[in-house]
């Protein structure tokens, strides 16, 4: 190929226009960088591409079996098999197969969208690396399953919170060996609305809003410099004495008909843990600071004189 001055500008063939280009094949399109010397071979020769797709299918099948054994959710192997056998192989249907033996690049100066009306399948014989400078989001309408066969999972946040929630069902954490929870510079809080049970072998501690129960089939030893028994208390009452808490709120009680503060009146705050905290409002109708570890609802009432 030469330019307007008859200087060589490359070898081979180039399709170029200042307008649009459309490539259409009603029965299918094969785009490949594989060699076919002097035009020998079939038009739809795709042996190497077919071999790579078969290999990817075998790899996905092996990982899928391992995932099912671990009770994770496996990829849809049958769907991938159907795409390969019924559409891409020899272009039996109107599909597009793009193949390159030594690598492929796909870039965009702005956005890049990949869309599949049914399944989107990606397989790598080595690593799959995703680098995102801002946000990386994954949303699934039904289920998300992560499975690592050999070396485990790692999830780190250099800054900001890590939040894991089961918003309408149970959450199970299980390990074959040791399990550790550590707060390097704070505290560890375990909270349950109804009941908390710690169990090891035949020994247990049961904590509920109605009381605390513990039991063991063996000996129980308490080692302490001092041991004291005090009157009844609850977590809600205790938290109000803490210096720091995740949430704190001071309420102002006003008469509904005038909007004036309810000054110097006895009140009760009913906490979610069942505790009732009583006090007297100040001259501005303030109740005093109520502290909690988590956001919770409270009921506030004015007590009779």
TrEMBL record:
Organism domain of life: Bacteria
Residues annotated as domain DUF2345: 86-233
Occurrences of domain Putative type VI secretion system Rhs element associated Vgr (ranges): 5-67
InterPro entries: T6SS_Rhs_Vgr_dom, VgrG2_DUF2345
Pfam families: DUF2345 (PF10106), T6SS_Vgr (PF13296)
Protein name: DUF2345 domain-containing protein
Native source organism of the sequence: Paraburkholderia phenoliruptrix
């Amino acid at each position: 190929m030469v330019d307007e001055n008859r200087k060589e500008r490359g070898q081979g063939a180039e399709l170029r226009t200042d307008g649009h280009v459309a490539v259409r094949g009603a029965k299918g399109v094969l785009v490949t960088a594989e060699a076919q010397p002097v035009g020998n071979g079939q038009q739809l020769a795709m042996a190497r591409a077919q071999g790579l797709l078969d290999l990817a299918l075998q790899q996905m099948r092996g990982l899928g079996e391992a995932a099912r054994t671990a009770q994770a959710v496996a990829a849809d192997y049958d769907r991938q098999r159907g795409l390969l056998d019924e559409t891409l192989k020899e272009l039996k249907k109107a599909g597009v197969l793009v193949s390159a033996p030594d690598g492929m690049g796909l870039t965009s100066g702005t956005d890049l969208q990949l869309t599949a009306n049914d399944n989107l399948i990606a397989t790598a014989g080595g690593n799959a690396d995703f680098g995102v400078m801002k946000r990386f989001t994954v949303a699934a309408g039904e289920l998300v399953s992560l499975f690592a066969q050999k070396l485990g999972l790692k999830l780190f946040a250099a800054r900001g919170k890590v939040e894991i929630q089961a918003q309408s069902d149970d959450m199970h954490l299980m390990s074959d060996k040791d399990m550790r929870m550590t707060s390097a510079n704070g505290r560890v809080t375990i909270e349950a609305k109804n009941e908390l049970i710690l169990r090891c072998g035949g020994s247990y501690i049961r904590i509920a809003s109605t009381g605390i129960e513990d039991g063991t089939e063996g000996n129980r030893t308490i080692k302490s410099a001092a041991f004291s028994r005090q009157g009844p208390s609850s977590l809600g009452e205790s938290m109000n004495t803490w210096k720091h808490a995740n949430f704190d709120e001071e309420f102002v009680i006003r008469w509904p008909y005038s909007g004036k503060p309810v000054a110097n009146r006895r009140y009760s705050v009913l906490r979610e843990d069942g505790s009732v905290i009583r006090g007297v409002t100040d001259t501005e109708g303030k109740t005093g600071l109520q502290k909690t570890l988590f956001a919770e609802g409270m009921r506030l009432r004015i007590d009779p004189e």
